Amino acid sequence: MTRYILIASTLFSVFFIQATCQNTTTNTTSDVVEGSVDKTEINKTNGVIKLEEYVKELKLEDYPVAIVAGGCFWCTEAVFERVEGVVDVVSGYAGGGIKNVPSYKWIGTGKSGFAEAIAIFYDPEVVSYETLLKVFFIGHDPTTLNYQGPDHGTQYRSAIFYQSEEEKMKDEVAIKKVDASGKYSDPVVTTLEPYDQFWTAETYHQNFYEYNPNQGYVRAVSRPKVEKVLKEVPELIKKDYLEK
Q1: Does 37-241 carry CATH code 3.30.1060.10?
Q2: pLDDT computed for residue 183 by the predictor
Q3: What are the residue ranges spanned by the domains of the chain?
Q4: pLDDT of residue 243
Q5: Buried b vs exposed e over 84-98: b needs ≥16 C-beta within 10 Å?
Q6: Cβ contacts of residue 82 below 8 Å, gap of 6+?
């Protein structure tokens, strides 16, 4: 899928930068913080597996997982990888039912029902679910229906996939808090959807932000979102990322 990002220069000229999520060329070196989970070996064919298989292969059974969608997963994955207490973040697909195996090409049609989502594994003794929601509502615009910036379609919807009634209640409280804060001029349109199944995305999507810092979309769209979170809640960010 091709994304076109309209940029006005200081000379008032206008031009297009073409960037694509389908670019499979990634750097062999990166600035990934030491100790982060290496996802490049998961299912070397294309990387699309059920979350349960991912958990088993990476031995993440001891950690709770939050599943959210907030536009392009290149952005949201990078945001949450920087949060203290987050053990791992994997990009993937959610909200499209349990029978269909997703692919990025199919998701790109906007007709699959799936959203680009992330699964966030975290240590609850270090970071709470409520704090993750706080970061979530900073790291994307929850007031735009079915789009984020240049990305349009239901696959880019703002959504939280709750796994229990307790989580749903916390989600509802968080949304009311954001609306009451006046942070955004429009009301939150984030959907609360019961969790059904999460599939990890193709391998080349994982850690895309870290491996491709100079890619056009990363520079123009992803990086400002990451920098916004680092600026607004530095107390929640892993020290290694603050020192970069």
Answers
A1: yes
A2: 93
A3: 37-241
A4: 74
A5: bbbbbbbbbbbbbee
A6: 226, 229, 230, 237, 238, 241
Given CA atoms 227, 232, 238, 241 in this order, what sign does their dihedral have? positive
pLDDT for 27: 42
HEC secondary structure over 137-182: HHHCCCCCCCEECCEECHHHCEEEEECCHHHHHHHHHHHHHHHHHC
Mean pLDDT by 10 residues, the chain (244 residues): 34 34 40 41 68 96 98 98 98 93 93 97 98 98 96 98 98 98 96 97 96 96 97 96 79
Residue 72 bears catalytic tag: yes
Q: Which of 37, 42, 60, 72 is catalytic?
A: 72
Model confidence, pTM: 0.84
Which residues contact residue 169 at a Cβ distance below 8 angstroms, ignoring those fewer than 6 apart? none
- Residues 6+ away with beta carbon under 8 Å from 219: 213
